[in-house]
């Protein structure tokens, strides 16, 4: 390896491939200091750190503990019986100053944590909200992510991290029969990205929808129905727009009606407001209502609104041929979100957000500080997911 620093540029030559990173001079110096640093020989400490052997031994026991929990939780009470603040009473007020043994920590899991769990995975007995089911392979995947601990904010930060997300989101889109406009591999500007939640996804896309319009943010309006999940209203609180909740009726299976939507849009335009987006839902939380997309898309097109489809749990059913007609019209929407931690056997938290055009999202969320600039990003040949989401960092989450 060869390092050379010239002005603001640090060149690291590994084997035959030189990598040039544009860095601030201070950062360059700290990288050089790091790469040339030789630690002093370790001094014996009073409390030895966890070794690789300890990690293997206790890792094995922890995996066993997890599988024991999962195999037995069907017999545990679904709802925890603890009183509020039970854990504050059971734990010391400050962190231990001497190390705890792994035996003691595992025993705390059994005696202090398990009794305070609501057992969402308890088979057949959990009927609240939605039934999650994290599968063993997905739990192993999560463990691997923590073990690799990469930061994939842009492509160069870990190419495998970005590329695995690109490839697997295309796989998921195909599995769900989503239209080609949402695929990274299609020629258009669309693609998928993993977000933490359906709420985060709604916030990101509504921010993009607001950014598209040149108007006073407080006069912008997002349309939802009275069945829409509260995440949409919360997203409008965050981005600073108004929202209109349109009443639905049991005679229409509680689906948002395009006529009612258009009537409200017309009224709002008359009042000097700027409609920006409509959030449709395929599978509402409280009533399982499915909004019919084609008529909503037609109204949205007429008034140039962004259409976001919140399919947090219902989207998983798009894989089934018998439910395909519920998703007709997806080819004309702007974005679609499905939570993989609901019906797709992944542990919390993983929401797949698909956009037909990445540009408005990038316009709303891209910043390119000097320390993140690199030749690959500037070439435009790679995806940098930091610009598709609210946080900068992301782990190997695919
Ligand atoms: C679960 C659910 C949400 C909330 O999802 P988060 O990922 O927790 O933000 C939103 N919309 C619908 C339809 C849901 O089922």
TrEMBL record:
Pfam families per UniProt: Pyridoxal_deC (PF00282)
CC per GO annotation: cytoplasm
Superkingdom classification of source: Eukaryota
Requisite cofactors: pyridoxal 5'-phosphate
Protein's GO biological process: amino acid metabolic process; carboxylic acid metabolic process
Protein family according to the UniProt entry: Belongs to the group II decarboxylase family.
Name under which the protein is recorded: Dopa decarboxylase
């Amino acid at each position: 390896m060869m390092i050379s620093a010239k002005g603001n540029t640090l060149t690291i030559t590994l084997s035959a491939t030189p990598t040039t990173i544009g860095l601030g001079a201070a950062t360059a110096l700290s990288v050089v200091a790091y790469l040339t640093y030789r630690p002093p020989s370790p001094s014996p400490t009073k409390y030895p750190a966890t070794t690789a052997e300890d990690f293997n031994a206790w890792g094995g026991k922890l995996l066993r503990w997890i599988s024991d929990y999962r195999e037995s939780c069907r017999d545990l009470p679904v709802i925890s019986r603890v009183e509020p603040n039970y854990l504050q009473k059971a734990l010391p007020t400050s962190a231990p100053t001497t190390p705890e043994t792994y035996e003691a920590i595992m025993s705390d899991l059994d005696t202090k944590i398990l009794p305070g769990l609501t057992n969402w995975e308890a088979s057949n007995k959990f009927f609240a909200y939605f039934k999650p089911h994290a599968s063993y392979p997905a739990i192993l995947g999560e463990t691997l992510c923590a073990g690799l601990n990469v930061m994939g904010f842009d492509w160069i930060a870990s190419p495998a991290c970005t590329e695995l997300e690109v490839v697997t989101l295309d796989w998921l889109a195909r599995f769900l029969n989503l239209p080609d406009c949402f695929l990274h591999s299609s020629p258009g500007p669309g693609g998928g990205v993993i977000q933490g939640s359906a709420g985060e996804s709604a916030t990101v896309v509504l921010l993009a929808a607001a950014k598209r319009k040149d108007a006073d943010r407080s006069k912008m309006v997002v349309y939802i129905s009275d069945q829409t999940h509260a995440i949409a209203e919360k997203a409008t609180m965050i981005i600073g727009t108004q929202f209109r909740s349109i009443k639905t009726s049991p005679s229409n299976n509680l689906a948002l009606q395009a006529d009612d939507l258009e009537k409200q849009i017309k009224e709002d335009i008359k009042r000097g407001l700027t409609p920006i987006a409509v959030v449709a839902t395929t599978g509402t939380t409280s009533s399982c209502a499915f909004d019919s997309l084609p008529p909503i898309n037609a109204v949205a097109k007429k008034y140039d609104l962004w259409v976001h489809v919140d399919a947090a749990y219902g989207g998983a059913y798009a894989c089934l041929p018998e439910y395909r007609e519920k998703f007709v019209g997806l080819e004309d929407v702007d974005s679609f979100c499905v939570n993989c931690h609901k019906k797709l056997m992944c542990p919390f938290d993983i929401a797949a957000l698909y956009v037909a055009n990445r540009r408005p999202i990038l316009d709303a969320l891209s910043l390119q500080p000097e320390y993140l600039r690199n030749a690959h990003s500037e070439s435009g040949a790679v995806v940098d997911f930091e610009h598709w989401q609210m946080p900068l960092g992301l782990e190997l989450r695919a």
